[in-house]
Amino acid sequence: MTKEPIILGIESSCDDTSAAILHGQKILSNIVANQQVHSLYGGVVPELASRAHQQNIIPVVDAAIKKANINKEDISAIAFTKGPGLLGSLLVGSSFAKSFAMGMNIPLIAVNHMQGHILSHFIDEGEPIPKFPFLCLTVSGGHTQIVRVESASNMQVIGTTIDDAAGEAFDKSAKILGLPYPGGPHIDKHAKKGNIHTFAFGKSKIKELNFSFSGLKTSILYKIQNNLQKNPRFIEENLENLCASIQHSIVSILLNKLEKAIKLTGIKQLAIAGGVSANSYLRSELGKLAIDKGHQLYIPKFEYCTDNAAMIAITGYFKYLDNNFIDQSETPSARLSF
Ligand code: KG4
Ligand code: ZN
Hints:
Shape: globular
Radius of gyration: 20 Å
Bound molecules: 5'-O-[(R)-(carboxyoxy)(hydroxy)phosphoryl]adenosine, zinc ion
């Protein structure tokens, strides 16, 4: 092996327990254990999430080390998600990372989860990587941001949601339609056979580069309730068209603000990140926009869109190069900003 560091990444901010091993910028393993228990409740139950992380963390790390075909003594540093996220979930990953760092006498690196989503673009998969500066539309279950990325350590949020996140807009709409949690992938799937123009929904008008999805959610709820009063089978009979129209509305809000950000900043290098970047309609509409306007677009591999530890390990790699380590007194933070 070359002298490049080997980083163990740990992600436990929400309901996925993940561990990854990175050698330089190349992934040797990326193991994710999803928590099915939450689908029974239509959303993540924080208490159950922390308990499941506690059960999963050791087997997941073991599997990542085995799959990477290394010994734990080969690991140069451990990086973990410091926040934002659910505090009980973050505590499991951070406590594990601290103990591991102490036991192995290696440096400890704290990573911002949202920064991790963005830097997942720098995992070496033999594909082109974004050049600085670029704009990243970071869309997940908890966040919706337009980020101006100047370097791996210098990023500014230039637009954000004032209420729900884009992922929440997908998940709450799916709940209204009676689809399982998390609803984003289900809406994506049903929308493929639907017509985007069948239903129109009201959207809030928000200034500058900020987003709002609560007006859209209310409009979807009222339209469906009104129609259900006239026809109890309204959802089943229109599921595909409803999903396509809802998805079109959410994606239009996102693209509208991204186009505005391109105009304001003059930056034409674009990237997307976060769970919602797995959405097939968002990916194809962004692709069309990039081709139309001659922008350069970077879309992550599906496995790096939703929560994973590879993105924490790559962020750890950049911090390792900067000697940006923390000591054992650091604590996780549920509302961590950049
Ligand atoms: O980044 P992520 O895995 O976790 C958070 O940090 O929140 O994002 C999860 C979100 C959920 O809201 C989920 O419904 C959404 O990403 N999502 C999707 C798709 N896949 C995941 N939304 C729309 N279309 C998809 N294909
Ligand atoms: Zn995330």
